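Q: I'm building a small set of examples for a reading group on sequence design. Run inverse folding on the following structure and report the sequence directly after it, with nothing in between.
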């Protein structure tokens, strides 16, 4: 009976670590996606901001 309890405790401990690792991986993936979306947003914004500045400059010159 003691062996069974020890095996159950070990299994529960391993399952807990697996759960923690899975949550950590999920959080890491979500942060990666968040960073990629932020980078995409900034790239698009900066490209359009440059175009807007150039357009205003051209309009001032005309």
């Amino acid at each position: 009976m003691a062996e069974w309890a020890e095996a159950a405790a070990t299994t529960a401990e391993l399952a807990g670590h697996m759960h923690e690792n899975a949550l950590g991986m999920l959080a890491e993936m979500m942060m990666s996606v968040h960073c990629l979306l932020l980078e995409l947003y900034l790239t698009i914004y900066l490209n359009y901001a440059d175009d807007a500045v150039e357009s205003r400059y051209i309009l001032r010159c005309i």
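The longest helix spans residues 2-61.
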